[in-house]
Amino acid sequence: MPQNTNNSKNRKSSAPIDDTYGHLQPQAIDIERVVLGALMIDKDAFSLVSDILKPESFYDPRHQKIYAAVLSLSMNDKPVDLLTVTEELKRQGEIDDVGGVVYIMELTQQVVSSAHIEYHAHILAQKSLMRQLISYTSRIQELAFDDTADPEAVMQTAEGSLFEISQKNLKSDYTQIDPVLKEAVQIMQKASQNTSGVTGVPTGYGKLDDMTAGWQPSDLVIIAGRPAMGKTAFALSLAKNIVVDYQQPVAFFSLEMSNVQLVNRLMANVCEISGKNIQNGQLTDDEWKRLDSNLRKLEGKPLYIDDTPGLSIFELRTKARRLVREKGIKLIMIDYLQLMNANGMRFGNRQEEVSTISRSLKGLAKELNIPILALSQLNRGVESREGNEGKRPQLSDLRESGAIEQDADMVLFVHRPEYYGMTDDGKGNDLRGKAYIIIAKHRKGGTGDVVLRFKGEYTRFEDESDTYLPPVSESGAQVFNSRMNRDDEDDPLGPPLPEGEL
Fold first, then answer.
1. How far apart are CA 321 and CA 83, in angstroms?
2. What is the DSSP-derived secondary structure letter of residue 148?
3. Which contiguous run of DSSP H or E holds residue 10?
4. Is the dihedral of CA 482, 486, 487, 493 positive or negative?
5. pTM for this model (two decimals)
6. How far apart, in whole angstroms, are the C-alpha atoms of residue 362 and residue 216?
7. What is the mean pLDDT of residues 365-385?
8. Mean pLDDT score, 421-437
9. Distance CA 209, CA 215 (A)
């Protein structure tokens, strides 16, 4: 295609053609020299730019090595000046590569003050970011021109690479305490007008709301359990309570089940019709009437379901932002965390990838200022432990990454003793049909247990009249007696979640 000569004439002279990208990459060599000179004449200058600049922020390879020497000296609590930087470069065997002592002396002679070093550092950081984006687009363009490349794989690489760049360059500035105090007082005043004591998104379960005050903005909540414990049923019960009873918009990302399967479970929950009957359509006359009358509870409700399989963290961020902006979403649910991926990013192992996903979910919750509830699998350690106490989930049972526990503001376990054959708590209390929601971690409150009634036929959790238990013992366990064979399933609409390696 012939070039547009008019456009060519209008191009700035600062962007000549080169052999790499067709234009000179964004750079500011003179500013690089000024910054390096300022670092060597002012011992306090490094503290102003240390969180802004990295060696790769400099375009000139010589300047990258000089800044790396400055960084090394500062990290080892050594003074930074002309002599120490020169000696450090000699020690590293790079003094000749940077132009020798003469060039370093020239850098210090170009400046008399470090007054504007922070401003100059931001310019260099911006130039560096633009170079990263150029490199990113070049790589994606090269992949896109490859006839043998899989478009889906290219798209995943593009998403992951761009997300990696954004994560590396995401910075938050400090805030003086006064405006934060004002905001905190305003939140307290608003909360004081709420007699229910629920300051976040209500759960719909009285005692759970008492302990949590609702799901709080910016919190990452992990709901974990072994397969067949009812994690998804509990999440759907929460979603139903929030959208039906409180009219608050919820986004549900289902990575395992289709939207129809998910809605089938909701219908069983709301209409109190056997999941098996809903699946095969064999309803009695009374059940058809219940279906007709109760479906109105779900129609028009602000529940938004996304059943994209293999959802990446980058895709989630994009969709979540749009849902919050367009639909006013107050809470996001993800079923489940270990089925997500961070495609396009490079990891040494799956644990590093899960750690990145967990950390990103927490960052997204903070960014959108809404709670995110992510379901999570537990490892097989629960199954291998013997005794009544051993079957009770622990934080160490979270699958694949300790980062999940670290990043979460709250960790809840769904635990049904009956599944392991415990029908009596040793005090004559019947445990059949009961589910323990164990609050194992709570940054903003206490830990403890909430007991709900579980109706497996309807995949439904309900409040009990007396559900608030005191916090668990220091060992994190409560004693239950007796066992029976595992002969029940809590999931009439499908098999338990897979236990194979993910």
1. 51
2. T
3. helix 5-10
4. positive
5. 0.64
6. 13
7. 84
8. 75
9. 8
